[in-house]
Amino acid sequence: MEAICALSAVPRALFELHSDDDLTVALSDGLALVRNGQFGYLNRSATEMVTLGPNGHLYWTEAGHIYEIDPAADAPANEVTHLFANGPQGRQQITCMPDGDIWVEGCTTRRQIDGTFVANPRHYESHAPAPCALDVYGNFWSITNGHVLVLPANSSDAWQSAWTSIEPQDMLFADSVGYIWLVGPTQWRRFCPREMEKVDRKRWQNVTGTGPFALERYVQANAQIYKKNEPY
User: Fold this and answer.
1) Is residue 210 part of a domain?
2) pTM greater than 0.70 (yes/no)
3) pLDDT tier at 18 (50, 70, 90 boundaries)?
4) What residues have CB less than 8 Å from 13, skipping those under 6 apart?
């Protein structure tokens, strides 16, 4: 492993830009550009969540607002909260999905890949969800207020409840095979979307401590993040 450069703070996310070999890093005290091994800040602020848009711009949430910056331009960030028709809420999650749409938790519109904005599907939570996963069947998935939600590919006009969790959940993701994984403080659960009509607690299989790999461990040290799978 070769060190590229030293970071001034703990990184939260790393993005490879669509051109050149530049990297952008989301840190606890702002956004930075790494170019040819040199580190420099693009914006100094207390960012919450960050995503890279299909246009190469960075979008992030911060203190109830949404901002956009072009790493390739020598220009300040723009506030774009009004375009998303509300301020971010909850965890202030912001994400760019594989289709190029940018969603923000708590906002009722999303940015499409062509730069236009469109109304989000109906929801029944205290604030609008933002998807955190898209499975191979075209279903969007989210976690909001302890509820696992799904936006089915064949009924994409409204979010539906998939399961209500007893304990807080740290992460939800979809794998390349088609399973949905739900990661909590003490348990991992797995669900197969092919059984969508049977969505209930019993269908979320508890797989904690099973399989060829132990639970992934994340080790953070010296402002660098390592990810390690440990086989039994």
Assistant:
1) no
2) yes
3) low
4) 25, 26, 50
